[in-house]
C-alpha cells in the first residue's frame, strides 16, 4: 500500500515537471517572438537613412539571446525545431539574422570604426552648418579627411563596410557634389579635341587603306596577265583565233561569191583552150576515116 502511494506521487511529480517544462518552452517561444518583433520594428524605423546596425544593436542582441536560450533547452528543441518542412522558428530567425549579416553590421563594431566615422562626419556637418555659402572652401579639409578614412576602410575590408557608413557616405557625397556643387571636374579641351580627331580619322584611314590595297591588287593582276613570261596564250584569244579560221557558213549560204576580173580571164582562157583541143581531135578523126 505504501509502495503504491509512492508510485502515484512519483507519476504526479513527473507530470507536474513535464507541464512546467512545457510552460517554460511556451514562455521562451513568446519571448523570442517579442524580441524578433522588436528587431523588425527597429529595422523598419531605421530604414532611411540607414541606421540598422547602430540603431538596432540592442534589439538584435536580445533576439539572439532569446533564440540561444530556447535552442539550449532540449525539450524546446524537440518541440519547436525540425518538426515540419517549413520549420518556422528557425526560418524566421535565419531571415532576420541574414538581414544583419547582409548589412555587414559586425564591421560597425570592429576596431571602433563606427565611432571614428561618426566623429568625422559630425565635424563636417558642423563646418557646413557654420559656413553657409562658403562650404566648398572652408569645409574641404573635413570632407577630404572623411572621404580618405572611408576609402581606406573600404579597401581594407574589400568593400564589406558596415552599411550604415556606406549609406551615410553616399548621402554625404551626393550633398557635397550635387546640392553644394563643390565637386568641379576639370575639362581637358586638348584631350577632347585629340579624341575627336582620332574618331574622325580612323574611318577615313580605314577606307583609304582599303581603296589603295584594292587598286594595287588590280594593277598587279593586270601586269600578271599581260606578261608572256608568266602566261601562255590566252584561252579567250585562242578561242577567238580558232573561230576566225573557220569558214563563215552564214556568208556562204546567204551571199554567193562574185568572181574577180582575174578569175574571169583565167576561166575564159581555160574555156578557149578546151574548144581548140576538141576541134583538133575532130579533124584527126576525119583524116583517119578518109584513109580507111
From TrEMBL:
Extent of Polar residues compositional bias: 232-254
Keywords associated with the record: Membrane, Signal, Transmembrane, Transmembrane helix
Biased composition (Basic and acidic residues): 283-292
Membrane spanning stretches: 189-207
Signal peptide extent: 1-22
Pfam family, any one: OSTMP1
Entry GO CC: cytosol
Biased composition regions of type Acidic residues, renumbered to the chain: 271-281
Disordered: region residues: 231-292
InterPro entries tied to this protein: Osteopetrosis-assoc_TM_1
Protein name, UniProt field: Osteopetrosis-associated transmembrane protein 1
Classification of source organism: Eukaryota, Metazoa, Ecdysozoa, Arthropoda, Hexapoda
Gene name as annotated: OSTM1_0
